[in-house]
Amino acid sequence: MGFEVIAKPKGGNLDKMAEKVFYESINLLGGLKKLVEYRNLTWLPSLAEAAYVVVLKNEAMKTYGEIARELGITEQTAKNIATADEEEVKRYLEGELEERPKEHIAGGIAKLAYRKLKEEGRLDAEEVEIKQEELEVLDIDWAVHVLARIKGLDFPVNKEALVERLKGIVIKGKRAEEILDKLDYPIKSPSQLLHEIKMHL
């Protein structure tokens, strides 16, 4: 007879932690204004996904398989994010490497952000680094909220399942239901969903 071990988060709310790792990742990249300057807003969905993987792996002690199922990504992607060499990614971002490393860039950034928050004891703290007004002006936190709402959904998904989870969310002044009306179904993965939503904003 084996014992069933139920992984519990070591503390705090996992969605909140993922949100913090996401915001801290943006801070590490030089803040929102830098991202806008570099037209790197395409990174946001990947950063949101990576933030969740890092938190689920380290705080909820989930396996790659469990993370993959919960976020609707492949096990390999979950593993690539969680095992990214953050020091290598840091060197790449600081311009020390000629070529882009093989590491999962967003994964490395999320791991750096997670480590910083842990070391400074801010992962469980109440404050959130980026001012809400600033986020709303650029309207970028929608990716995190969408991911939080669709966790555990089985992909591919149809419109009804998404409306059920996302109703009530307003993205850049548009109701989620309105955006979902315009997408092509079935949606194969969370990444595709974030990408499609972005295309219709």
The number of distinct β-strands equals 2
Structural class: mainly alpha
Biggest sheet statistics: 2 strands, antiparallel
Write down the secondary-structure element order.
Answer: HHHHHHHHHHEEHH
Shape: globular
Radius of gyration: 17 Å
Q: Overall pLDDT, averaged?
A: 80
| Strand residue content | under 5%
Q: Which percent range fits the helix content?
A: 55-70%
Strand arrangement within the widest β-sheet reads 1-2
Distance between the termini: 53 Å
The number of helical segments is 12
How many separate domains make up the residues?
1
Low-pLDDT sequence parts: 1-11
Organism: Archaeoglobus fulgidus
Protein name: KaiC associated regulatory domain-containing protein
Descriptive overview:
This protein has 201 residues and is an all-alpha fold. The chain has one domain. It contains twelve helices and two strands; from the N terminus they run H-H-H-H-H-H-H-H-H-H-E-E-H-H. A two-stranded antiparallel sheet has the order 1-2. Helix 6 crosses helix 7. The chain is globular. The N terminus is likely disordered. This is KaiC associated regulatory domain-containing protein. InterPro entries: CHP03879_regulat_dom_put.
